[in-house]
Design a protein that fits this description.
Number of domains: 2
Radius of gyration: 25 Å
Order of helices and strands: EEEHEEEHHHEHEHEEHHEEEEEEEEEE
CATH topology of the largest domain: Rossmann fold
Protein backbone atom coordinates (compact mmCIF):
# COMPACT_ATOMS: atom_id res chain seq x y z
CA UNK A 1 0.00 0.00 0.00
CA UNK A 2 1.54 3.36 -1.02
CA UNK A 3 2.21 6.01 1.64
CA UNK A 4 -0.25 8.86 2.08
CA UNK A 5 2.44 11.48 1.46
CA UNK A 6 5.82 11.15 -0.24
CA UNK A 7 8.60 13.70 -0.61
CA UNK A 8 10.67 12.33 -3.49
CA UNK A 9 14.23 13.71 -3.85
CA UNK A 10 12.98 17.18 -2.96
CA UNK A 11 15.49 20.03 -3.15
CA UNK A 12 14.99 23.73 -2.41
CA UNK A 13 17.61 26.46 -2.78
CA UNK A 14 17.57 30.12 -1.83
CA UNK A 15 20.34 31.65 -3.93
CA UNK A 16 23.53 29.73 -3.12
CA UNK A 17 22.04 28.25 0.08
CA UNK A 18 20.53 24.76 -0.15
CA UNK A 19 17.76 24.63 2.46
CA UNK A 20 16.54 21.13 1.56
CA UNK A 21 18.92 18.72 -0.15
CA UNK A 22 17.46 15.75 -2.08
CA UNK A 23 15.14 14.67 0.76
CA UNK A 24 12.98 11.56 0.41
CA UNK A 25 10.42 10.86 3.15
CA UNK A 26 7.33 8.64 3.18
CA UNK A 27 4.53 9.38 5.66
CA UNK A 28 1.74 6.92 6.37
CA UNK A 29 -1.96 7.63 6.71
CA UNK A 30 -3.03 8.57 10.23
CA UNK A 31 0.40 8.90 11.82
CA UNK A 32 1.93 11.82 13.69
CA UNK A 33 5.20 12.45 11.89
CA UNK A 34 7.63 15.02 13.25
CA UNK A 35 10.32 16.95 11.42
CA UNK A 36 12.89 17.68 14.11
CA UNK A 37 16.07 19.70 13.96
CA UNK A 38 17.81 22.96 14.85
CA UNK A 39 17.05 26.31 13.22
CA UNK A 40 18.06 26.38 9.56
CA UNK A 41 17.98 22.61 9.06
CA UNK A 42 15.23 22.75 6.40
CA UNK A 43 12.25 21.40 8.34
CA UNK A 44 9.99 24.46 7.94
CA UNK A 45 10.96 24.82 4.27
CA UNK A 46 9.90 21.20 3.73
CA UNK A 47 6.58 21.93 5.45
CA UNK A 48 6.01 25.06 3.35
CA UNK A 49 6.62 23.10 0.16
CA UNK A 50 4.02 20.57 1.29
CA UNK A 51 1.56 23.42 1.93
CA UNK A 52 2.29 25.01 -1.46
CA UNK A 53 3.88 28.19 -0.08
CA UNK A 54 7.24 27.26 -1.66
CA UNK A 55 8.00 25.35 -4.86
CA UNK A 56 10.79 22.73 -4.97
CA UNK A 57 13.69 23.33 -7.35
CA UNK A 58 13.85 19.55 -7.91
CA UNK A 59 11.88 16.48 -6.91
CA UNK A 60 8.18 15.79 -6.39
CA UNK A 61 5.59 15.79 -3.63
CA UNK A 62 2.96 13.07 -3.95
CA UNK A 63 -0.28 12.93 -1.94
CA UNK A 64 -2.15 9.62 -2.22
CA UNK A 65 -0.13 8.96 -5.38
CA UNK A 66 -1.10 12.29 -6.98
CA UNK A 67 1.63 14.77 -7.86
CA UNK A 68 0.76 18.01 -6.02
CA UNK A 69 4.13 19.71 -6.54
CA UNK A 70 2.75 22.46 -8.77
CA UNK A 71 -0.68 22.91 -7.18
CA UNK A 72 -1.48 26.24 -5.48
CA UNK A 73 -2.16 26.10 -1.73
CA UNK A 74 -5.94 26.45 -2.04
CA UNK A 75 -6.17 23.36 -4.25
CA UNK A 76 -4.36 21.06 -1.81
CA UNK A 77 -6.25 19.06 0.86
CA UNK A 78 -3.73 20.34 3.37
CA UNK A 79 -4.12 22.91 6.18
CA UNK A 80 -1.48 24.60 8.32
CA UNK A 81 -1.40 25.66 11.98
CA UNK A 82 1.14 28.44 12.54
CA UNK A 83 3.09 29.43 15.64
CA UNK A 84 1.54 32.91 15.48
CA UNK A 85 -2.06 31.53 15.44
CA UNK A 86 -3.01 33.83 12.48
CA UNK A 87 -6.54 34.42 13.84
CA UNK A 88 -8.81 37.24 12.71
CA UNK A 89 -8.93 39.60 15.72
CA UNK A 90 -12.32 41.15 14.77
CA UNK A 91 -14.10 37.78 14.49
CA UNK A 92 -15.41 35.65 17.33
CA UNK A 93 -13.93 32.24 18.10
CA UNK A 94 -16.94 30.66 16.37
CA UNK A 95 -16.55 32.83 13.25
CA UNK A 96 -12.79 32.19 13.08
CA UNK A 97 -13.45 28.45 12.98
CA UNK A 98 -16.26 28.87 10.44
CA UNK A 99 -14.26 31.09 8.08
CA UNK A 100 -12.98 28.36 5.76
CA UNK A 101 -16.38 26.71 5.47
CA UNK A 102 -18.00 30.04 4.54
CA UNK A 103 -15.37 30.70 1.90
CA UNK A 104 -16.19 27.26 0.50
CA UNK A 105 -19.91 28.27 0.48
CA UNK A 106 -21.05 25.33 2.57
CA UNK A 107 -24.71 25.23 3.70
CA UNK A 108 -25.45 27.14 6.90
CA UNK A 109 -26.67 24.05 8.77
CA UNK A 110 -23.48 22.19 7.86
CA UNK A 111 -21.34 25.13 8.99
CA UNK A 112 -23.15 25.38 12.31
CA UNK A 113 -22.92 21.63 12.96
CA UNK A 114 -19.26 21.37 11.99
CA UNK A 115 -18.24 24.41 14.05
CA UNK A 116 -20.15 23.11 17.09
CA UNK A 117 -18.32 19.79 16.73
CA UNK A 118 -14.95 21.52 16.55
CA UNK A 119 -15.72 23.73 19.55
CA UNK A 120 -16.59 20.63 21.53
CA UNK A 121 -13.48 18.80 20.31
CA UNK A 122 -11.13 21.55 21.49
CA UNK A 123 -13.18 22.28 24.63
CA UNK A 124 -13.99 25.88 23.70
CA UNK A 125 -17.81 25.88 23.56
CA UNK A 126 -18.10 28.27 26.57
CA UNK A 127 -15.81 30.74 24.76
CA UNK A 128 -17.43 30.57 21.32
CA UNK A 129 -18.59 34.19 21.26
CA UNK A 130 -15.39 35.73 22.60
CA UNK A 131 -12.79 37.48 20.45
CA UNK A 132 -9.22 36.11 20.26
CA UNK A 133 -7.93 38.90 22.53
CA UNK A 134 -10.25 37.64 25.29
CA UNK A 135 -8.79 34.12 25.53
CA UNK A 136 -5.41 32.73 26.59
CA UNK A 137 -2.51 31.72 24.35
CA UNK A 138 -3.32 28.05 24.76
CA UNK A 139 -6.95 28.67 23.83
CA UNK A 140 -5.89 30.69 20.77
CA UNK A 141 -3.81 27.74 19.61
CA UNK A 142 -6.78 25.41 20.02
CA UNK A 143 -8.88 27.79 17.92
CA UNK A 144 -6.21 27.68 15.21
CA UNK A 145 -6.21 23.87 15.31
CA UNK A 146 -10.02 23.72 15.13
CA UNK A 147 -10.08 26.15 12.19
CA UNK A 148 -7.52 24.01 10.35
CA UNK A 149 -9.42 20.77 11.05
CA UNK A 150 -12.94 21.92 10.22
CA UNK A 151 -12.35 21.61 6.46
CA UNK A 152 -11.33 17.96 6.95
CA UNK A 153 -7.88 18.13 5.33
CA UNK A 154 -6.03 14.96 4.41
CA UNK A 155 -2.93 16.31 6.18
CA UNK A 156 -2.60 18.82 9.02
CA UNK A 157 0.71 20.71 9.09
CA UNK A 158 1.79 22.12 12.45
CA UNK A 159 4.66 24.60 12.29
CA UNK A 160 6.16 25.00 15.79
CA UNK A 161 2.58 25.35 17.12
CA UNK A 162 3.53 25.50 20.81
CA UNK A 163 6.74 27.52 20.65
CA UNK A 164 5.15 30.73 21.95
CA UNK A 165 3.71 29.07 25.07
CA UNK A 166 5.30 28.49 28.47
CA UNK A 167 6.62 25.06 29.45
CA UNK A 168 3.68 23.79 31.52
CA UNK A 169 1.13 24.97 28.96
CA UNK A 170 3.13 23.28 26.18
CA UNK A 171 3.09 20.04 28.12
CA UNK A 172 -0.67 20.23 28.66
CA UNK A 173 -1.42 21.11 25.05
CA UNK A 174 0.73 18.23 23.82
CA UNK A 175 -1.60 15.85 25.66
CA UNK A 176 -4.63 17.64 24.22
CA UNK A 177 -3.17 17.62 20.72
CA UNK A 178 -2.53 13.89 20.97
CA UNK A 179 -6.14 13.35 22.06
CA UNK A 180 -7.39 15.47 19.14
CA UNK A 181 -5.34 13.39 16.72
CA UNK A 182 -6.80 10.19 18.15
CA UNK A 183 -10.29 11.63 17.71
CA UNK A 184 -9.99 12.89 14.12
CA UNK A 185 -7.51 10.28 12.85
CA UNK A 186 -5.89 12.37 10.10
CA UNK A 187 -2.19 12.63 9.38
CA UNK A 188 -0.27 15.24 11.38
CA UNK A 189 3.13 16.58 10.28
CA UNK A 190 4.65 18.36 13.24
CA UNK A 191 7.64 20.69 12.87
CA UNK A 192 9.64 21.44 16.00
CA UNK A 193 13.14 22.04 17.33
CA UNK A 194 12.08 20.70 20.74
CA UNK A 195 13.19 17.11 21.22
CA UNK A 196 10.78 16.55 24.10
CA UNK A 197 7.77 17.59 22.03
CA UNK A 198 8.76 15.34 19.14
CA UNK A 199 9.51 12.36 21.37
CA UNK A 200 6.24 12.62 23.27
CA UNK A 201 3.77 13.07 20.41
CA UNK A 202 5.28 11.31 17.38
CA UNK A 203 4.75 7.91 15.85
CA UNK A 204 7.92 8.53 13.84
CA UNK A 205 10.52 11.28 13.67
CA UNK A 206 12.79 12.55 10.89
CA UNK A 207 15.86 14.25 12.38
CA UNK A 208 17.17 16.89 9.97
CA UNK A 209 20.57 18.59 9.81
CA UNK A 210 21.89 21.00 7.16
CA UNK A 211 19.05 20.23 4.74
CA UNK A 212 19.38 16.46 4.93
CA UNK A 213 17.58 13.73 6.85
CA UNK A 214 20.01 12.13 9.30
CA UNK A 215 17.64 9.41 10.53
CA UNK A 216 13.98 8.37 10.46
CA UNK A 217 12.48 6.10 13.09
CA UNK A 218 10.25 5.65 16.09
CA UNK A 219 11.18 7.84 19.09
CA UNK A 220 12.71 4.91 20.98
CA UNK A 221 14.79 3.95 17.91
CA UNK A 222 16.05 7.50 17.47
CA UNK A 223 17.03 7.77 21.13
CA UNK A 224 18.40 4.29 21.84
CA UNK A 225 19.97 3.57 18.44
CA UNK A 226 21.16 6.88 16.91
CA UNK A 227 22.77 6.42 13.50
CA UNK A 228 25.04 9.46 13.62
CA UNK A 229 26.77 11.55 16.25
CA UNK A 230 24.50 14.49 15.40
CA UNK A 231 21.38 12.47 16.19
CA UNK A 232 22.95 11.11 19.39
CA UNK A 233 23.82 14.62 20.61
CA UNK A 234 20.65 16.39 19.44
CA UNK A 235 18.21 13.89 20.95
CA UNK A 236 18.96 14.22 24.64
CA UNK A 237 22.51 14.29 25.96
CA UNK A 238 25.25 11.76 25.47
CA UNK A 239 28.90 10.97 26.07
CA UNK A 240 31.10 10.23 23.06
CA UNK A 241 34.00 7.82 23.42
CA UNK A 242 36.60 6.99 20.77
CA UNK A 243 37.88 3.43 21.02
CA UNK A 244 40.10 1.02 19.11
CA UNK A 245 38.55 -2.42 18.74
CA UNK A 246 40.50 -5.25 20.34
CA UNK A 247 39.98 -8.99 20.57
CA UNK A 248 36.45 -10.39 20.31
CA UNK A 249 34.78 -11.97 23.33
CA UNK A 250 32.00 -14.52 23.52
CA UNK A 251 28.87 -13.50 21.63
CA UNK A 252 28.67 -10.06 20.01
CA UNK A 253 31.13 -8.37 22.35
CA UNK A 254 34.71 -7.18 22.04
CA UNK A 255 37.38 -5.58 24.11
CA UNK A 256 38.28 -2.03 23.09
CA UNK A 257 40.91 0.47 24.18
CA UNK A 258 40.04 4.11 24.93
CA UNK A 259 43.11 6.36 25.05
CA UNK A 260 43.37 8.00 28.45
CA UNK A 261 40.67 5.78 29.95
CA UNK A 262 41.77 2.18 29.52
CA UNK A 263 40.19 -1.03 28.31
CA UNK A 264 36.42 -1.39 28.07
CA UNK A 265 33.96 -3.93 26.69
CA UNK A 266 31.71 -2.93 23.77
CA UNK A 267 28.71 -4.48 22.06
CA UNK A 268 29.90 -5.29 18.54
CA UNK A 269 26.56 -4.65 16.82
CA UNK A 270 28.23 -3.18 13.72
CA UNK A 271 30.61 -4.98 11.32
CA UNK A 272 33.91 -3.98 12.97
CA UNK A 273 37.25 -5.77 13.28
CA UNK A 274 40.27 -5.63 15.59
CA UNK A 275 42.23 -2.42 15.00
CA UNK A 276 39.19 -0.43 13.79
CA UNK A 277 38.51 2.98 15.34
CA UNK A 278 34.91 3.19 16.57
CA UNK A 279 32.80 5.95 18.09
CA UNK A 280 30.54 5.13 20.99
CA UNK A 281 27.48 6.98 22.30
CA UNK A 282 26.80 6.41 25.99
CA UNK A 283 23.72 8.05 27.53
CA UNK A 284 24.19 9.62 31.00
CA UNK A 285 21.31 7.67 32.56
CA UNK A 286 22.98 4.38 31.60
CA UNK A 287 25.91 5.11 33.95
CA UNK A 288 25.81 4.24 37.64
CA UNK A 289 27.83 6.27 40.17
CA UNK A 290 29.01 4.97 43.56
CA UNK A 291 31.68 5.67 46.13
CA UNK A 292 32.40 1.99 46.58
CA UNK A 293 33.97 -0.15 43.88
CA UNK A 294 31.07 -2.01 42.26
CA UNK A 295 30.97 -5.73 41.67
CA UNK A 296 31.40 -5.95 37.91
CA UNK A 297 30.55 -8.87 35.66
CA UNK A 298 32.52 -9.77 32.51
CA UNK A 299 30.40 -7.40 30.38
CA UNK A 300 30.42 -4.50 32.85
CA UNK A 301 32.74 -1.52 32.57
CA UNK A 302 33.94 0.05 35.82
CA UNK A 303 36.18 3.13 35.86
CA UNK A 304 37.37 5.27 38.77
CA UNK A 305 37.18 9.05 38.64
CA UNK A 306 36.66 12.30 40.57
CA UNK A 307 33.41 14.27 40.70
CA UNK A 308 33.99 17.67 39.03
CA UNK A 309 30.43 19.05 38.89
CA UNK A 310 27.06 18.19 40.42
CA UNK A 311 23.67 19.59 39.38
CA UNK A 312 20.57 18.68 41.39
CA UNK A 313 17.27 18.68 39.43
CA UNK A 314 14.94 17.35 42.11
CA UNK A 315 13.92 14.11 40.44
CA UNK A 316 17.48 13.42 39.35
CA UNK A 317 21.08 14.53 39.82
CA UNK A 318 23.73 14.90 37.13
CA UNK A 319 27.38 14.21 37.83
CA UNK A 320 30.35 15.16 35.68
CA UNK A 321 33.15 12.75 36.53
CA UNK A 322 36.78 13.16 35.43
CA UNK A 323 38.13 9.75 34.41
CA UNK A 324 41.67 10.14 33.15
CA UNK A 325 41.50 12.33 30.05
CA UNK A 326 37.72 12.00 29.78
CA UNK A 327 34.94 14.00 31.44
CA UNK A 328 31.84 11.81 31.52
CA UNK A 329 28.31 12.74 32.49
CA UNK A 330 26.12 10.40 34.55
CA UNK A 331 22.51 10.96 35.56
CA UNK A 332 21.03 9.30 38.65
CA UNK A 333 17.26 9.08 39.21
CA UNK A 334 16.13 9.54 42.82
CA UNK A 335 14.02 6.50 43.56
CA UNK A 336 14.42 6.79 47.33
CA UNK A 337 14.09 9.63 49.82
CA UNK A 338 17.34 11.45 49.14
CA UNK A 339 17.77 12.93 52.62
CA UNK A 340 18.27 9.40 53.98
CA UNK A 341 21.30 8.93 51.73
CA UNK A 342 24.74 10.48 51.38
CA UNK A 343 25.16 10.95 47.64
CA UNK A 344 28.56 11.78 46.13
CA UNK A 345 29.56 15.45 46.19
CA UNK A 346 32.12 17.61 44.43
CA UNK A 347 35.66 16.30 44.80
CA UNK A 348 34.65 12.77 45.82
CA UNK A 349 36.46 9.78 44.37
CA UNK A 350 33.81 7.58 42.75
CA UNK A 351 33.37 4.61 40.47
CA UNK A 352 31.22 4.74 37.37
CA UNK A 353 29.82 1.57 35.83
CA UNK A 354 27.90 0.70 32.67
CA UNK A 355 27.10 -2.52 30.81
CA UNK A 356 28.57 -3.15 27.36
CA UNK A 357 25.02 -3.21 25.94
CA UNK A 358 24.48 0.39 27.07
CA UNK A 359 27.03 1.88 24.66
CA UNK A 360 25.92 2.23 21.04
CA UNK A 361 28.31 2.24 18.07
CA UNK A 362 27.68 5.11 15.64
CA UNK A 363 27.68 4.68 11.88
CA UNK A 364 28.80 8.26 11.25
CA UNK A 365 30.69 10.65 13.48
CA UNK A 366 31.28 14.39 13.00
CA UNK A 367 33.74 16.04 15.37
CA UNK A 368 31.78 19.31 15.42
CA UNK A 369 28.89 17.49 17.11
CA UNK A 370 31.06 17.12 20.20
CA UNK A 371 30.06 20.68 21.14
CA UNK A 372 26.62 19.28 21.98
CA UNK A 373 28.04 16.82 24.49
CA UNK A 374 26.21 16.61 27.82
CA UNK A 375 25.17 20.23 28.25
CA UNK A 376 23.15 21.12 31.38
CA UNK A 377 19.38 21.46 30.99
CA UNK A 378 18.06 24.97 30.41
CA UNK A 379 14.44 24.34 31.43
Amino acid sequence: MPPLLRFENVTKRFGSFTAVDAVTIEIEKGEVFSLLGPSGCGKTTLLRMCAGFETPDAGRILLEGRDITGLPPDERPVNTVFQSYALFPHLSIRDNIAFGLRIAKRPKNEIRNQVDRMLDLVDLTPHADKKPAQVSGGQKQRVAIARALVNKPRVLLLDEPLAALDLKLRQRLLVELDAIHDEVGITFIYVTHDQGEAMSISDRIAVMHCGKVEQIGRPAEIYEAPRTSFVAAFIGDTNFLDATVGMPLEGEFSRACVDGLGEIVIDRDKPVHPGDLVHLSLRPEKILVSREQPSAGPLDNAVQGIVEDVIYFGARTRYWVRCGEWRLCAEIQHRKFLLDEQPPVWGDKVWIRWHANDGYLLEQYHSEDETLLTLPDED
